[in-house]
From TrEMBL:
Protein's name in the database: Protein translocase subunit SecA
InterPro entries per the UniProt record, alphabetical: Helicase_ATP-bd, Helicase_C-like, P-loop_NTPase, SecA, SecA_DEAD, SecA_motor_DEAD, SecA_preprotein_X-link_dom, SecA_SF2_C
Name of the gene encoding the protein in the UniProt record: secA
Pfam short name (any one): SecA_DEAD
Subunit structure: Monomer and homodimer. Part of the essential Sec protein translocation apparatus which comprises SecA, SecYEG and auxiliary proteins SecDF-YajC and YidC.
Domain Helicase C-terminal: 474-623
Primary subcellular site in the record, as a coarse category: membrane
Catalyzed reactions: ATP + H2O + cellular proteinSide 1 = ADP + phosphate + cellular proteinSide 2
Native organism taxonomy: Bacteria, Pseudomonadati, Pseudomonadota, Alphaproteobacteria, Rhodobacterales
Organism annotation: Oceanicola granulosus (strain ATCC BAA-861 / DSM 15982 / KCTC 12143 / HTCC2516)
């Protein structure tokens, strides 16, 4: 994140907090528009990339010098160079030498020497930029020298990724090199107790998921209460107790966010809410009554569904019918606004949220499935009684409604890091929003090797059943050739349905979804072997490197089949990116149905035309239009979320900051 205020002018303000973090920026509509256009223009300006390429070439030229040194000499030199980077010396470039030393140590410790393009990415990260690298180009290796260099300079470093699996994998991989340099590595997992979490954050480098670090920040805010500022914290310590005692984090120093488009964009549509369970007498009876009343209402006459915005609106006739149906009931049902709110949530649970797509039932409870990552989000619940309505709908124990303790959006949280950087495989189309919202300038890093992946086409079928039969037939052809196949689905339900279809066809396969993510490492390790067939939700869509088995390259590499387009074309490209990594061969194709939700929800008129005409050009137009509308809706939602967040913050200023 570039230093300075909006548009790069002025020094960043420090937040009123007992540990290091930035204050929220002060901006206006003109600033935001200018930032968006600057972000778009800078991302396409070639000078940043050319400058990084020249510096990477200088680093590569230093390789023979440092290859001749002993390892202990390299370690001592790394610490010396790290200190030198903290001060500006004309005519010297200690950062280039530091990265050259780290590259040599990385090779000696892990057997991997960073390519010049990866060194370009590492330098861009240290400059506080958003780095776009094509899928399969080695973002994990790119982030290592940047994280180590920052930690050697004494910055608290958080390497943030999208889930516990990737945080644990990447943290374990860098640990031997970090220990060699005298640096400690902490890994934060969801099920950790508070003491273990604090110990992980106390390390020089901390690997953590975006949800975990944000919720830990909110817990610190709740623990601080009114002793937010340094002066009040010192006063509290004088009265009794150590300043900052009981806090989990040690500050928001430098964050490197992997899969940044997922964290900054896809998951930024809703705020993160820290809550506790409230007491709610007769909760099961209340929500079951709501479901009974909702089932008595008629779609179109009593309520209207907006599937594109996933909202329900009661008509005037529906409100009157609800009042009549609720006559004689006591409690909240006597209050018009309360009963209408409850029934709207019941209608949403019945008509907008589906088992196997939006949630699963596991261990006797409803667990939300993240639509972007395909993973279960433990301890997350929907607000406003919706979660309880879904529990009642599925016949599991109904929990009490949650009481909000604190909340924050990802947009506000990540802007509070003193320094921020990110990596993604798909960032150019979002460059304006990255600059406007997070102050990050996007730079595209070239490929190390030419892309050998081929897209062999897209096929549209009238029905979902026809699509699944075609997928099974295609898998049979490829399996007979011995090629590994990865089949991507959008939901748990779809992956399990396809599994049954493949079973009926006698095709051996493995399934990776939210119900089986504990076996993720084993399934991913086998997915590139000869003849392997893997059915996966978006669990396998990001961050997974599928290594090809012996003889697979000669057969054409991994083949990826997309069975349903996502609302963002970026996520489709992430799935395709599992094939053809680092110059390997690979192929992709799409086998989809015109019945898919993307089309029925966003382009119903074009869908009717496409069903009648059955023209490939019309199918392509329908897909592009639907994804464009979906992405536009999501962008509006994100901007509205930030606006509401700021409004609420301003209206509650008299009571202190709300998180």
């Amino acid at each position: 994140m570039p230093d300075g205020g909006r548009l790069g002018f002025g020094a960043p303000r420090r937040a009123v907090s007992p540990y290091a973090e930035r204050a929220d920026p002060i901006d206006n509509a003109v600033d935001r528009i200018a930032e968006r256009w600057l972000g778009w223009a800078e991302a396409r300006w070639p000078l940043h990339r050319r400058r990084l390429a020249r510096r990477a070439a200088r680093i590569a030229a230093l390789e023979p010098r440092y290859a001749a040194l002993r390892s202990h000499q390299l370690v001592a030199l790394a610490h010396t160079l790290a200190r030198q980077t903290l001060r500006h010396t004309p005519g010297r470039d200690p950062l280039a030498h530091l990265l050259a030393v780290l590259a040599e140590l990385l090779f000696r410790t892990l057997g991997k020497r960073p390519y010049p393009v990866q060194l370009m990415g590492a330098m861009a990260l240290l400059e506080g930029r958003l780095v776009e690298m094509a899928t399969g180009e080695g973002k994990t290796i790119t982030g290592m020298p940047a994280a180590l260099a920052a930690a050697l300079r004494g910055e608290p470093v958080h390497v943030v990724t999208v889930n516990d699996y990737l945080a644990g994998r990447d943290g374990a991989e860098i640990a031997p090199l970090a220990e060699r340099l005298g640096l400690s590595v902490g890994i934060v997992e969801t099920e950790m107790d508070p003491a273990a979490r604090a110990a992980a954050y106390a390390c020089d480098l901390t690997y953590v998921s975006n949800a975990n670090v944000t919720f830990d920040y909110l817990r610190d805010r709740v623990a601080l209460g009114q002793a937010r500022g340094p002066a009040r914290a010192r006063l509290a310590s004088l009265i009794g107790g150590r300043a900052g005692a009981g806090l989990t984090l040690r500050g928001l120093g430098f964050a490197i966010v992997d899969e940044a488009d997922s964290v900054f964009i896809d998951e930024a549509r809703t705020p993160l809410i820290l809550s506790s369970s409230g007491d709610e007498a007769d909760a099961a009876r209340l929500y079951n009554t709501g479901l009974r009343l909702a089932r008595a209402l008629r779609a179109g006459a009593d309520f209207e569904l907006d599937e594109m915005r996933r909202s329900v609106t009661l008509t005037e006739a529906g409100k009157e019918r609800l009042a009549a149906e609720a006559a004689g009931l006591d409690g909240q049902w006597r209050v018009r606004l309360a009963r209408e709110e409850l029934v709207v949530q019941a209608l949403s649970a019945l008509h907008l949220f589906e088992l196997g797509r939006d949630y699963i039932v596991d261990d006797g409870g409803v667990q939300i499935v993240d639509e972007y990552s395909g993973r279960v989000m433990p301890d997350r619940t929907w607000q406003g009684g919706l979660h309880q309505m879904i529990e009642a709908k599925e016949g599991v124990e109904v929990t009490g409604r949650k009481v909000t303790l604190a909340s924050i959006t990802y947009q506000r949280f990540f802007r509070r890091y003193v320094r921020l950087a990110g990596m993604t495989g798909t960032g150019m189309e979002l460059a304006g929003e990255f600059r406007e919202t997070y102050g990050l300038v996007t730079v595209r890093i070239p490929r190390h090797r030419p892309l050998r992946r081929r897209h062999v086409g897209s096929r549209f079928f009238q029905t979902a059943a026809g699509r699944w039969r075609a997928v099974a037939a295609r898998v049979g052809q490829l399996a007979a050739q011995g090629r590994p196949v990865l089949i991507g689905t959008r939901s748990v339900e779809a992956s399990e349905h396809l599994s049954r279809v493949l079973d009926e066809a006698g095709l051996a396969h493995r399934v990776l979804n939210a119900r089986s993510d504990e076996a993720e490492a084993d399934i991913v390790a086998a997915a590139g072997q000869r003849g392997a067939v893997t059915v996966a939700t978006n669990v396998a869509g990001r961050g997974t490197d599928i290594a090809l088995g012996e003889g697979v390259r000669e057969l054409g590499g991994l083949h990826v089949i997309l069975t349903e387009y996502h609302e963002s074309s970026r996520i489709d490209r992430q799935l395709y990116g599992r094939a053809g990594r680092q110059g390997d061969p690979g192929t992709t194709e799409a086998i989809v149905s015109r019945e898919d939700e993307l089309f029925t929800r966003y382009t119903p008129r074009l869908l009717r035309l496409a069903r009648a005409a059955r023209m490939p050009l019309l199918d392509t137009l329908m897909r592009r239009t639907a994804q464009s509308r979906a992405e536009r809706e999501h962008a509006i939602t994100r901007r509205e979320q930030v606006r509401l967040d700021k409004q609420l913050e301003s209206s509650m200023a008299f009571a202190g900051q709300r998180e």
